[in-house]
């Protein structure tokens, strides 16, 4: 299926902002310059200001001062008295609740926001979100995941220059959450507009984001490419703590039907063996490896259940105040970096140090389509 585009040049949709908002005792201060393509994740705990920031971008609230631009259009400039209302911002918004019109069929809900008749675009988005069989149903008969897919479709059919998603998986059970996340992942690969995705779930946001913004207490703690932030020791607590992870990307090159395994070639020539998946040869996968699922050996070993052993160099290490019994480690493996975690006792007994060659033993790997 061809990409579903908004008929806009991606370069026209770069989002930049500098805003200040006061909500009772809570103060939001944020300055961001987000990429014009891909998914920018806004991550942080409840109360960090994520949704407040999204509402300012959408025009649902006004800051006490600041500027917001989308491409070449100024959406807000408090000093110059500029405020473009929400309905003129060309921004699609998907809330935590689907907010569908209860008296319209799904088909009518989808068509409501369309700027002009576009049968081909309608069909493309319906197919992309897997909602063909829902078109003649009423919203009250839909599951939570189905209703949110319809809400996403309605937002896309308004031909936005930017799509905002505010914790769309909240309140769903695990099965519906995983199903909707698969559709959203597919969406992020095929729509040609930038997406800002808000979540407080580290695993969820690392599954789909390209760029990451970390918020805490109303301020931007960090903003950079996702893989770069995942390697920062000082963000370990914010980005999952015990579940700190690294992301790698690779291409499916073979399937082992006898043992139900899939072989993935990483971009630097290394390979990983994964549990068997039904992915076509040549398909790209994003691989997530938890730091706690990596062990180190001084030499390659045999007679082990570890299927993945990669030659690595220790490039950095630290002991975090919140976990003084462990050592956080960064490993260089070819052209990519991998996080690992050992007990201090293991680090000392093995005589490990920066610059040392080791073998990284990877216990398990999770993945999502790229």
TrEMBL record:
Query: Per the UniProt record, which EC number(s) apply here?
Result: 3.6.3.29
EC supergroup of this enzyme = hydrolase
Domain ABC transporter: from-to ranges: 14-242
Could you tell me which InterPro entries the record lists for this protein? AAA+_ATPase, ABC_transporter-like_ATP-bd, ABC_transporter-like_CS, Mo/tungstate-bd_C_term_dom, ModC_ABC_ATP-bd, Molybdenum_import_ModC, Mop_domain, P-loop_NTPase
Entry keywords, A to Z: ATP-binding, Cell inner membrane, Cell membrane, Hydrolase, Membrane, Molybdenum, Nucleotide-binding, Translocase, Transport
Keyword check for Hydrolase: yes
The UniProt record lists the Mop domain at 303-370
One GO cellular component term of this record is: membrane
Q: Name one GO molecular function term.
A: ATP hydrolysis activity
Its domain of life reads Bacteria
Return the NCBIfam families for the record. modC_ABC (TIGR02142)
List the protein's name.
Answer: Molybdenum ABC transporter ATP-binding protein
- Per the UniProt record, the source organism is Vreelandella nanhaiensis
The gene is: modC
């Amino acid at each position: 299926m061809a990409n579903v585009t908004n008929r806009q040049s991606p370069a026209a949709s770069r989002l930049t902002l500098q805003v200040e908002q006061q909500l009772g005792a809570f103060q939001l201060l944020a300055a961001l310059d987000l990429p014009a393509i891909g998914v920018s994740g806004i991550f942080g705990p409840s109360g960090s200001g994520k949704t407040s920031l999204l509402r300012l971008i959408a025009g649902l609230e006004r800051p006490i001062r600041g500027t917001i631009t989308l491409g070449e259009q100024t959406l807000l400039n408090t000093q110059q008295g500029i405020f473009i209302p929400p309905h003129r911002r060309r921004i699609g918004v998907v809330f935590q609740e689907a907010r569908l019109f209860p008296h319209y069929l799904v088909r009518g809900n989808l068509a409501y926001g369309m700027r002009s008749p576009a049968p081909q675009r309608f069909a493309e988005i319906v197919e992309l979100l897997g909602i063909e069989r829902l078109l003649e149903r009423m919203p009250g008969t839909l599951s939570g995941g189905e209703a949110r897919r319809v809400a996403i479709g309605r937002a896309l059919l308004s031909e936005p220059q930017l799509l905002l998603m505010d914790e769309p998986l909240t309140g769903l059970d695990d099965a519906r959450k995983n199903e909707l996340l698969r559709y959203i992942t597919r969406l992020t690969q095929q729509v040609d507009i930038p997406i800002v995705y808000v979540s407080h779930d580290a695993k969820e946001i690392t599954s789909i984001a390209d760029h990451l913004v970390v918020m805490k207490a109303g301020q931007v703690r960090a903003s950079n490419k996702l893989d770069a932030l995942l390697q920062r020791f000082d963000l370990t607590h914010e980005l999952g703590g015990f579940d700190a992870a690294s992301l790698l990307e690779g291409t499916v090159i073979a399937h082992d039907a006898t043992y139900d395994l899939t072989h993935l070639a990483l971009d630097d020539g290394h390979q990983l063996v994964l549990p068997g998946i039904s992915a076509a040869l040549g398909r790209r996968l994003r691989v997530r490896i938890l730091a706690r699922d990596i062990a180190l050996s001084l030499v390659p070993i045999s007679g082990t259940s570890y299927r993945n052993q990669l030659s690595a160099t220790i490039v950095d290490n630290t002991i975090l105040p919140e976990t003084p019994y462990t050592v956080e480690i960064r490993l260089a493996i070819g052209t990519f970096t991998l996080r690992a975690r050992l007990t201090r006792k293991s680090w000392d007994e093995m005589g490990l140090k920066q610059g040392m060659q080791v073998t990284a033993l990877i216990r398990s790997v999770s993945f999502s389509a790229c």
